[in-house]
Amino acid sequence: xxxxxxxxxxxxxxxxxxxxxxxxxxxxxxxxxxxxxxxxxxxxxxxxxxxxxxxxxxxxxxxxxxxxxxxxxxxxxxxxxxxxxxxxxxxxxxxxxxxxxxxxxxxxxxxxxxxxxxxxxxxxxxxxxxxxxxxxxxxxxxxxxxxxxxxxxxxxxxxxxxxxxxxxxxxxxxxxxxxxxxxxxxxxxxxxxxxxxxxxxxxxxxxxxxxxxxxxxxxxxxxxxxxxxxxxxxxxxxxxxxxxxxxxxxxxxxxxxxxxxxxxxxxxxxxxxxxxxxxxxxxxxxxxxxxxxxxxxxxxxxxxxxxxxxxxxxxxxxxxxxxxxx
Length: 326
Ligand code: KIV
Fold this sequence. Notes:
Elements (H helix, E strand, L loop, with lengths): L10 H7 L4 H12 L15 H9 L4 E5 L3 H10 L3 E4 L3 H4 L11 H14 L4 E5 L9 H13 L5 E3 L7 H9 L4 E6 L5 H4 L9 H17 L3 E5 L3 H10 L4 E4 L7 E4 L1 H4 L17 H17 L14 H14 L1
Parallel strand pairs: 1-2, 1-8, 2-3, 3-4, 4-5, 5-6, 6-7, 7-8
Helix pairs in contact: 4-6, 7-8, 8-10, 10-11
Bound molecules: 3-methyl-2-oxobutanoic acid.
């Protein structure tokens, strides 16, 4: 089956290319209405927003993971992730900033494009960074459009609740799916006094619920619940009719998200309590690098298998030539 992303092509563009062949038109129409479509980099069917809705309706947990570049996008896809998030956490875990508030729209776009080149099968969501959507709904729509057009994102995520209702409505009204994010909103860490668990008191728990209901009403297709106690997150999940994607919010959510570099152990400045380290890749990579240093220093690397041979007669001629020069 040819590999192409039908979602990026409109029927109006495709039909004339097929000429007058009715059979072809009909098979295209059949293909158009019957995802799965195989994708270029993996043999997986393309995940769309409808796949996410179906998983939720079937009560099947949704998997989400961050990716920050082409190889991690590709690996997330190969590993079977449903939704790839180009999260602004990449500011800290991949670019070394102290917080997510420093990263710019252009930097995020650069990473979003790279992830999109690798993650063809999963549904790609990109964070709108701090400062790109709070000022006005108009600015938010303009920036969201950039993430779809220039960053090849299929949805955007923004942090906040009740106060963002109008903004979410405006972005979804132009055809861009929005993923909400309530509870701990790291972009507001200055106002929160750090990266603190939210919803630990009755009042706070109700306020997070109010935020989740507000973003649902505004049109979000799902909402991230970050760092809230499990009973609160489970209750919110039961109150909503859209999927909740938990991070540090227990096992009662409709799905889970983690930051890739945390879970594979390549970011060692700190590991949040909620993160399970599936690998300690930092140790593996450091050991490989120091072995490489040793082998270069001892001239063990490169060995013959890593060198390009010359044809024997050409090598002979070349050695003769050198001898004559001496
Ligand atoms: O930026 C990010 O990686 C996120 C996840 C923690 C949900 O927003």
